[in-house]
């Protein structure tokens, strides 16, 4: 880190210290470690470039050497103090900060909303990794004047996130939370279009109904939910899912291979304008918690309901009975479906190291690679089903 920051200091001096005749810097991407005295050498260069109008748009990442699993509460508080000291010493940095990435910070002693939304008036993209408010407090964001359009959280162990007002927010992503129920809620988010939720839930996680999270959203067109091969953290529901009526793409990833897929039809039936349905099967041999099969009540098929659906994609396909039945059900519901893409999934690194891939002999259903095997799958899928869909195998 010291060598890297020493090199960065020299480059910054050369790049920022001398007047630039060719005009302003359109965008500067800068990643720094605030160690030793480098902050007090980089900071003045940035401030001067901003003050005289050379630097207009700054993408700043303040890194930390600690891995998430090795970072203590005391170290997170110390990192927060260092970051706050940097911004307090060089407030000009706030003026052109459009993207900010922070790592391993506890905001317990800082006013996080003042720092991120009132000071950073030009902020469009915020990424927080292993950041919290201490003692799993609820983070409430009420920032009607904020320009923030992208919010990404990675292993941020909050009690909950309540987005009360973020009028420009378009994309929200949260990877790993420890909330027992719904991890977030929305109020005024008129621009929100994409949501991505990723978590391997433990048995202490009681789950939540999706409509509880989406209740006050009006323009969601893309949703990705990743269960990482563990238990589902969605509770069964049906007619309440009115927030999906504008959905265009739905991705359900990390579904354990032994789960029945028919429960996903509840979400499919609630999204009449869906165009792309993306399923990823997880075949990891590891098992840390009990994984009960989904118990959703699937409505009986009456008539085609997904009149706009064009593509169904199954990543990690195996010709198991539950997968065949699921694909046939989707084909029946989607009369203009033109593509069913069945993809091979590479083994996870952990399974390769443990020597347990290919799957156990009891589940001897590998991806169909030969022409005869593929023809057999096509016949199973189209037997008695009227559909124009092409079945494509991608290994």
From TrEMBL:
Please, which domain of life does this record's source organism belong to?
Eukaryota
The record's listing under Pfam families reads: LRR_At1g61320_AtMIF1
Q: Where is the At1g61320/AtMIF1 LRR domain?
A: 94-351
Q: What is this protein called?
A: At1g61320/AtMIF1 LRR domain-containing protein
């Amino acid at each position: 880190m010291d060598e890297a920051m020493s090199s960065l200091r020299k480059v910054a001096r050369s790049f920022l210290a001398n007047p630039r005749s060719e005009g302003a810097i359109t965008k500067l991407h800068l990643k720094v470690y605030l160690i030793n005295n480098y902050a007090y050498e980089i900071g003045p260069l940035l401030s001067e470039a901003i003050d005289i109008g050379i630097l207009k748009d700054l993408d700043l990442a303040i890194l930390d050497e600690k891995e998430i699993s090795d970072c203590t509460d005391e170290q997170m508080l110390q990192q927060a103090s260092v970051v706050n000291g940097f911004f307090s010493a060089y407030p000009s940095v706030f003026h052109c900060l459009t993207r900010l990435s922070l790592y391993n910070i506890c905001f317990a002693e800082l006013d996080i909303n003042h720092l991120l939304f009132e000071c950073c008036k030009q902020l469009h993209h915020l990424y927080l990794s292993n950041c919290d408010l201490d003692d799993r407090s609820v983070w409430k964001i009420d920032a009607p004047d904020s320009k923030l359009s992208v919010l990404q959280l990675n292993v941020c162990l909050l009690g909950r996130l309540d987005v009360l007002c973020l009028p420009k927010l378009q994309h929200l992503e949260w990877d790993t939370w420890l909330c027992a129920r719904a991890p977030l809620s929305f109020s005024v988010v008129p621009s929100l279009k994409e949501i991505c939720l990723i978590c391997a839930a433990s048995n202490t996680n009681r789950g939540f109904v999706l409509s509880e999270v989406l209740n006050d959203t009006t323009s969601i067109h893309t949703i990705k939910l990743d269960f990482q091969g563990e238990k589902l953290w969605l509770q069964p529901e049906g007619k309440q899912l009115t927030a999906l009526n504008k959905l265009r793409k739905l991705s359900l990833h990390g579904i354990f291979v032994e789960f029945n897929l028919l429960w996903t039809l509840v979400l499919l039936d609630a999204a009449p304008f869906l165009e792309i349905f993306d399923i990823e099967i997880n075949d990891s041999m590891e098992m840390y918690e009990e994984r009960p099969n989904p118990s959703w009540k699937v409505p009986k098929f009456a008539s085609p309901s997904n009149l706009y659906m064009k593509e169904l994609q199954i990543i990690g396909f195996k010709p198991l009975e539950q997968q065949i039945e699921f694909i046939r059900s989707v084909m029946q519901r989607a009369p203009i479906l033109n593509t069913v893409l069945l993809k091979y999934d590479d083994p996870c690194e952990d399974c390769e190291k443990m020597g347990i891939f290919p799957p156990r002999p009891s589940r001897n259903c590998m991806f169909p690679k030969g022409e005869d095997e593929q023809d057999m799958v096509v016949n199973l899928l189209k037997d008695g089903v009227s559909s124009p869909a092409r079945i494509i195998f991608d290994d």
